[in-house]
Amino acid sequence: MIDRFTFPIILLAAGQSRRMQGRDKLLEEVDGIPLIRAQAQKARIATSGSVIVALPPRPHARYEALDGLDVTCLPVPDADTGMNASLRRSVAALPKDATCVMVLLGDLPDLQVSDLCKLARAVDLRSDTEVWRGTTAQGAPGHPIIFRNTLFDAFAILKGDSGGREVVASAQGHVALIPLPDNRARGDLDTPEDWAAWRKARD
């Protein structure tokens, strides 16, 4: 049985897959469905809260890949300026009563619903912790990351493609690292060679 949590998830899926030689990494099939749909389904199963998917402007095939799912598709008109545009707009779209939010990357296919729930279970709003971050089994920081609402205003001024590193840095001393199995927290697939190696390892 899944131990669902209640706060929102932002799924970052507005990147341009520049290193994929014309292919879209978020439309690559994982267990018979596009990766972006698989990631959105995991998010939807893990939380009863809202799931906001940051996407490139329409028209784009990623919207069709999400058809029928109970998620909010959020077009990011300035997505080509970097990941921080998606973070800025997605955090601004959160429910006003959100106590925290999980930020999930679209290109980590090995992450499981159980990993999202494990990270969420670590959240203790009675503590002074402001960031809960998934790591590899060996402790290397990765994703997902949960941000407390005390940090939400910091996202409003983000620019570029830092992925919110400044916000994590501002919480120094108040960051909890949560180990997830294997390399799931950092196993992003950015190139055709990455995908080929990943599929070969699964055979």
Automatic annotation (TrEMBL):
InterPro entries: MobA-like_NTP_Trfase, Nucleotide-diphossugar_trans
Domain annotation MobA-like NTP transferase: ranges: 10-171
Name of the protein described by the UniProt record: 4-diphosphocytidyl-2C-methyl-D-erythritol synthase
Pfam families registered for this protein in UniProt: NTP_transf_3
Keyword set includes rRNA processing: no
One function term, GO molecular function aspect: nucleotidyltransferase activity
Keywords, comma-separated and alphabetical: Magnesium
